[in-house]
Amino acid sequence: SGPLRLAVVPGDGIGPEVTAEALKVLQAVVPAEVGLTPTRYDLGAEHYLATGEVLPDPVLEEIRSHDAILLGAVGGKPGDPNLPPGLLERGLLLRLRFELDHYVNLRPSRTYPGTPSPLSEEVLAKGDVDFIVVREGTEGPYTGNGGALRVGTPAEVATEVSVNTAYGVERVVRHAFARASGRRKRLTLVHKTNVLTHAGAVWWRITQEVAAEHPDVEVDYMHVDATMIHLVTDPQRFDVIVTDNLFGDIVTDLAGAVTGGIGLSASGNINADRTSPSMFEPVHGSAPDIAGQQVADPTAAILSAALLLEHVDLPAQAAAIEQAVLDDLAEQAGAARRRTAEIGDAIATRLS
Ligand code: NAD
Ligand code: IPM
Ligand code: MN
């Protein structure tokens, strides 16, 4: 089947710094008989400011021909007058997710022995936290289905309409149930059915229908606001959370923050039907506040590379990365902060 063909989009801010470390780790762990051929695509703020291009169609088609995509982060400096808000987020990141039909946005969260967490002693004493968020990736309020009237006047009206199709909800809910079956068999639907009654009804009905096919999985429902409470007071109760695109975005930043921090939060944008390449990236963004200083934690990018290997059927290598990260974090407990490349080197060394 030839070497693993990887499209690499380092992107903006800390994106290139953390992606370099993820690639280093991949090079160390992918067996020589498989091989790895990365192709780098310089897309993002710098490329846009220099060329006016965000994601030209031929580049998208080239990216599509790879086995998987490794992405760093997308987003320029806030307030840059030459960068319209959302231009890169929509035109590059979301375009890739939508065009490649990444309907499963998989975001695991767990506590790591030796890694500090802002959770209270009392909460941590209840045991390890280990859950995944299955965030819908192609619909919700992200579709750009909205508009504005009378812009700039006191009578301005702006809408962002959330799109929820039975097709789109069912496929991601089915995926979440399948994952729950292979885990602790507990699925929580997170939504706001008490207010968003139209969208809520689709999510509720389809979850109940699919639940009937999975008597092994215990199903729970929680409003998204209350979920914020439980993530902080009782995160051990979660195994698989399934939710829409925007709720999932918000839930997963908190999930990262209460476990090991956003520097450890990995994600996969997965096309579970394998009709196009899936894309793996940290949950965090380009972090312009710390970019270029070699202080970003590359662990989230490295764990995203592990999710990538799992997806391309190299589960032993994926598990090896996870173990190396665990060992690295355990060894570092209480130690001084390391530079980005030092962390990547330490994890790669454990694997070679
Ligand atoms: P952010 O995730 O970039 O940063 C939030 C905070 O977390 C900052 O204080 C940052 O320094 C810190 N942080 C993030 N990653 C870290 C790491 N690896 N190690 C240590 N600290 C880390 O979120 P933001 O500031 O809201 O967004 C900045 C830009 O990134 C925006 O343009 C946004 O649109 C974009 N963004 C892109 C993605 C993506 O590409 N997937 C995700 C989120 C935000
Ligand atoms: C993320 C980011 C993106 C999202 C933005 C940058 C479009 O916040 O990957 O979590 O909202 O999905
Ligand atoms: Mn986000």
TrEMBL record:
Q: Which UniProt keywords apply?
A: Manganese, Metal-binding, NAD, Oxidoreductase
Which Gene Ontology terms describe the biological processes this protein takes part in? carboxylic acid metabolic process
Q: Name the domain of life this protein comes from.
A: Eukaryota
- Required co-factors: Mg(2+); Mn(2+)
The reply to whether DNA-binding figures as a keyword in the UniProt entry is: no
A GO molecular function held by the record: oxidoreductase activity, acting on the CH-OH group of donors, NAD or NADP as acceptor
Keyword Ubl conjugation appears in the UniProt entry: no
Q: Can you tell me which family this protein belongs to?
A: Belongs to the isocitrate and isopropylmalate dehydrogenases family.
Task: Write the protein's name.
Answer: Isopropylmalate dehydrogenase-like domain-containing protein
| Source organism (scientific name) | Rhynchospora breviuscula
Taxonomy of origin reads: Eukaryota, Viridiplantae, Streptophyta, Embryophyta, Tracheophyta
Full-protein interval shown: 102 to 453 of 453
